[in-house]
Amino acid sequence: MRLLIFFDLPVKTKPQIKQYREFIKYLKNDGFIRVQYSVYAKLCINKDCAQTVSKRIRLNAPAEGDIRYMIISELQYQHITNINNMHNLDENITTADRTLIIGGLNNEDS
Questions:
Q1: CB atoms < 10 A from the CB of 71, how many?
Q2: Helices (H), the chain
Q3: What backbone phi and psi angles, to 5 degrees, belong to 85?
Q4: Is residue 8's pLDDT more than 90?
């Protein structure tokens, strides 16, 4: 599953700018990657995980602004069409491969 979050937050005053920065910092610390300006995505194991993440977003969201989220399947996310073929580095790293390799090469000969 993927949780996509879209937001427009006011940044006219210093307190609003501070809230904006804190929200972005929260998203990054929670494992979201930036897809576009004000669009972030997070890979979730299942729907329950995505719903838990959405509850945390509600708790950490600034009071002002427009914040929306959407939960979609990984297959739906993979079918996003990128017209200009531009993407950021974070998005390149994220894949559907669920293989986890822990550790490195064991060089016993040295």
A1: 16
A2: 14-29, 47-60, 74-78, 89-93
A3: 55, 35
A4: yes
* Identity at 15, one-letter amino acid code: P
Q: Which two tokens stand for residue 30?
A: 């929670």
In the sheet with 39-43, reading across from the earlier edge strand, the strands are: 33-36, 39-43, 2-8, 66-72
Mean pLDDT of 30-53: 93
Q: Give pTM, 2 decimals.
A: 0.75
- Phi, psi angle pair for 72, to nearest 5°: -130, 165
Q: What angle do CA 3, 5, 6 make, to 5 degrees?
A: 155
Measured CA to CA, the distance from residue 89 to residue 52 in angstroms comes to 27
Amino acid at position 17, single letter? I
